Amino acid sequence: MTRWLDDAQMRAWLGYRRMRLLLDLQVSRDLAESSGLSDADYDVLSNLSDTDGHRLRLTELSAHMRWSRSRLSHHLTRMQQRGLITREECPSDGRGAVILLTDAGWEAIRAAAGHHVESVRRHFIDRLTDEQIRVLGDIADAVVPHLDDVPSRPAADRR
To answer: Where does the HTH marR-type domain lie (predicted)?
Structure first.
């Protein structure tokens, strides 16, 4: 039997969906205007910049971003053509690839980060009280571990 959402739950769910859509669009627009980077570019660069040696195996990056290796590989090719990342053969596995942040990629993420944070503050953080931020953090702590445990499956397998 379906457990339908009550009015308060529906308000919360629809509000979250609309907020996420509008917030993602605005922050993405600001990022592109201030740095020329897409959300995907920023995600790749920030993931690499947060690691020792600014490098990750393609499989690790793919798993963290929840992208297929094929999709990520195509995006990385475009980023490599722009000089933001480079690829090396994995020393422990000749079939694997290691993605490295280039000097240009490091400069791009450093230049973009401040503008990105200002956009997040302007359109989201500064709109909330300290209590709302704490509650949102608690909500994320409750939901994210569950979603991290849900196996990723190709769309064709979800039917």
So the answer is: 1-145
